[in-house]
Amino acid sequence: MILNKSDTRRKPKDQTFWVFFPAASLLAALAVPLSVWAVWSGTGWPAGLLGTGHGHELIFGFALAVIAGYTLGPQPASVVYPLFGLWLAARLSWFFWPDSLLAQTLSPAFTLLLAWHVVPRFNAAKKWRNKMVGPLILVLCLLAAMFGLAEALGPFNTSWLPGHLQLMHSAIAGLLLLMTFMGGRVIAPAVAGTLEKKGIPLEARVQPRIEGALIVTLGCTVFLTAFPAANPVAGSLLVIASGLITLRTLRWKLWLCPERPDLLVLGLGYVWLAVGALLTGAALLLGKTPAPALHVITIGALGVLSTSIMLRLAWQRGHRTPPTTTDIALIATLLSGAAISRLVAGSAPFSSPALLWLSAGLWALAYFWVFIRLQTLRKYAKKRQK
């Protein structure tokens, strides 16, 4: 076989998650306690984490970095590092100068460049349920750009023109849908394979009818949560989605996999999706602020599922085994405690500073641990490649 010069000069591709996962973990560990400090200390520093700023960084900074690491796969350095550099510049500018033109430009620029790289990867899907991933990621990226525009419009926002807070709620609903879909695609085959080795057939795997119903219900919710007038409808759809997520989880029979704690923790993250959807839906139906319930989604579900996925990929690449029980049990416990503490702190969390600091501290400890483990696993993976 004769290789031409272009073949011999090809540079190896880098696993994108080795770059984005540690950075996302470090951002998560720092942003939450710093956001509490910015208000509690009275200094207002860092300015970018005040008010909805911390939500912006955790959704459009942290969550999109995890999505980048998970969906891009192996990429040449010419793709990975410019994209990561733009992400880092966007985070630093938003942290310290959130109202500057630089921050308002770099953050949307990263999300749009990410969409340009990621969305086409899902165009080859044949089933409509699989095709929705690309457009959903595109919507999340566009919401990041719209967030800055909504902040700039400020007093011109009306009931028919969503404000930045409503757009953030839509983004969280979009993450809820994305986690529901992708979490199911990870859990279902893993549970089925585990049970088959034990001679137990699992008929309910992906469960396409339930998955399709979830895509429709939560897809509508992404749009409706941007408009306060539609809260009763959005709330009803979230309650229905919670029931569907619960039913899907039960049909996986995760209790038959006690030897796979990594799957049990993924199941716990999926249960947090159901709890978060139920509480958020109930809050919207009752006309209450959904903030505490939304934190159940962003802390409980996003926290447990993102850490599980990050460690799962890193352990498979480094050791070709699932994560250790110590890793995932410790992190799941810390994040579940953080979610419960923030929920109990309620809609006025700074009136319960002990609970708020406890939640922030547990969250930060979990992600610092993930950051350290990812660094260790990356070094081991590099040694194996030599």
TrEMBL record:
<keyword id="KW-0472">Membrane</keyword>
<feature type="transmembrane region" description="Helical">
    <location>
        <begin position="16"/>
        <end position="40"/>
    </location>
</feature>
<feature type="transmembrane region" description="Helical">
    <location>
        <begin position="79"/>
        <end position="97"/>
    </location>
</feature>
<feature type="transmembrane region" description="Helical">
    <location>
        <begin position="263"/>
        <end position="287"/>
    </location>
</feature>
<feature type="transmembrane region" description="Helical">
    <location>
        <begin position="233"/>
        <end position="251"/>
    </location>
</feature>
<feature type="transmembrane region" description="Helical">
    <location>
        <begin position="327"/>
        <end position="348"/>
    </location>
</feature>
<dbReference type="Pfam" id="PF05940">
    <property type="entry name" value="NnrS"/>
</dbReference>
<protein>
    <submittedName>
        <fullName>NnrS family protein</fullName>
    </submittedName>
</protein>
<keyword id="KW-1133">Transmembrane helix</keyword>
<feature type="transmembrane region" description="Helical">
    <location>
        <begin position="293"/>
        <end position="315"/>
    </location>
</feature>
<feature type="transmembrane region" description="Helical">
    <location>
        <begin position="209"/>
        <end position="227"/>
    </location>
</feature>
<feature type="transmembrane region" description="Helical">
    <location>
        <begin position="103"/>
        <end position="120"/>
    </location>
</feature>
<dbReference type="InterPro" id="IPR010266">
    <property type="entry name" value="NnrS"/>
</dbReference>
<feature type="transmembrane region" description="Helical">
    <location>
        <begin position="354"/>
        <end position="374"/>
    </location>
</feature>
<keyword id="KW-0812">Transmembrane</keyword>
<feature type="transmembrane region" description="Helical">
    <location>
        <begin position="52"/>
        <end position="72"/>
    </location>
</feature>
<feature type="transmembrane region" description="Helical">
    <location>
        <begin position="132"/>
        <end position="150"/>
    </location>
</feature>
<feature type="transmembrane region" description="Helical">
    <location>
        <begin position="170"/>
        <end position="188"/>
    </location>
</feature>
